[in-house]
Amino acid sequence: MGNRRQFAVEFEVDADAPPARDVWGCLWLWAGGTCIGNSHEVEIVDFGLSGLQKAGRAIREQPSFLSSMPASEALDLVMWAIYGDDDPGREEMIKDRRSLDPFEVMPGVMGPYGDGWEAILIGDGSSERLVYRHALQSTQEDRWPQGTFSRTVTEAREVFRRFDWRVSG
To answer: What torsion do the CA atoms of 36, 120, 110, 83 make, to the nearest 10 degrees?
Structure first.
């Protein structure tokens, strides 16, 4: 769903998986033509989609200081707040480290689909940007109109849920 050159969500179902209540498959994102996530990772697809929906809804609650920060600094700050050790210098910037949790897209909300990736979603009222990097590579960002992330993820989840994925014998 979406536009790979702007923002898109893509998934596929593992046809070899035994019939089950939860559908297993692969899930990944596209931003600015770049594939983001582990497209080979097999997991419960709806788990990843629901996590992405949560991240899309959280964009409205973001502190304004993140939207004015350079991409790599904002990503470093959020990853530190969630996974890092105590740092008095950074702790002065924010009162509550947990307040930055909602901005995380990867690895957290996508589970194994996001392992090895770091990504956050930041809004500024009229646009939103996905800031991301894989392992120790350089930070990248893509920007699009506010609401694009949430609309695209919601559409992908609705399409996913419309199908009867049970495999008949």
So the answer is: 120
